[in-house]
């Protein structure tokens, strides 16, 4: 995160509580969405560990695993998980078609970015109050992935028919724009922190959505 190991661990703890609450409240269809805060918790805990390893050379052996965990969640798991989790709970046919297309695009992007992590390893260093991630990938690769990534991680929430989910999407867009403007060189770290805090809304989305899920009543037989 953009402040310290303590802040990252605190964000991880908050999103863990939110994830457990969401999973406890959600019907089966909402399990993927309810797990989003837990994925973000893993993300934040990994960056907390990274802070510790970068600040103390004696812990340097954990730097690689921390970076790998952080980037796998953010660059591989996240693009595929987010659109799919919104798709499976959407009831409107028109929105489902668009969300289905975004889910397919997300899986493709996740595959491309998984290749990118293998071909162009990520390094990280502390720059003031931030962690800066660097990946020396070709400009066309970065250009395409940077364009598609927001589409599959933010647009699904904006497309959803659920109002709370659209609110979450709007907050994600606002945080993305602000991070791009004010924290460009630390975008990955700072925006993921904002996304962690915003993900707490998932609990409300899951609770409200699960309350609307009804089991079809058996029709009386006619003789």
Describe what you observe in this structure.
- The chain is mainly α and 223 residues long.
- The protein has one domain (5-210): Up-down Bundle (Rhopdopsin 7-helix transmembrane proteins), CATH 1.20.1070.
- 72% of the residues lie in helices and 5% in strands.
- It contains ten helices and two strands.
- The chain has helices at residues 5-25, 31-34, 36-55, 63-87, 93-119, 139-153, 155-159, 163-182, 187-198, 201-212, and strands at 122-127, 130-135.
- Strands 1-2 form a two-stranded antiparallel ribbon.
- Strand 1 and strand 2 form a beta hairpin.
- Helix 1 (5-25) packs parallel to helix 10 (201-212) and helix 3 (36-55) packs antiparallel against helix 4.
- The protein is globular.
- Mean pLDDT is 84; it is low at 214-223.
């Amino acid at each position: 995160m953009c402040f310290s190991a303590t802040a990252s661990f605190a964000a991880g703890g908050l999103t863990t509580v939110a994830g457990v609450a969401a999973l406890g409240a959600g019907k089966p269809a909402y399990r993927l969405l309810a797990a989003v805060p837990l994925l973000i918790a893993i993300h934040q805990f990994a960056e907390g560990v990274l802070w510790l390893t970068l600040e103390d050379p004696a812990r340097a052996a954990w730097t690689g695993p921390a970076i790998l965990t952080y980037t796998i969640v953010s660059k591989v798991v996240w693009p595929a998980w987010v659109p799919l989790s919104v798709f499976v709970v959407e009831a409107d046919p028109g929105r489902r078609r668009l969300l289905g297309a975004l889910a397919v695009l997300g899986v493709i992007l996740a595959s491309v970015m998984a290749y990118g992590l293998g071909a162009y390893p990520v390094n990280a260093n502390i720059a003031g109050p931030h962690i800066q991630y660097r990946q020396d990938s070709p400009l066309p690769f970065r250009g395409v992935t940077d364009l598609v990534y927001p589409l599959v991680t933010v647009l699904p929430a904006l497309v959803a028919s659920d109002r709370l989910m659209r609110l979450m999407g709007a907050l994600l867009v606002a945080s993305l724009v602000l991070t791009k403007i004010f924290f460009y060189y630390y975008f990955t770290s700072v925006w993921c922190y904002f996304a962690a805090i915003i993900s707490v809304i998932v609990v409300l989305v899951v609770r409200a959505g699960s309350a609307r899920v009804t089991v079809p009543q058996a029709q009386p037989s006619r003789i």
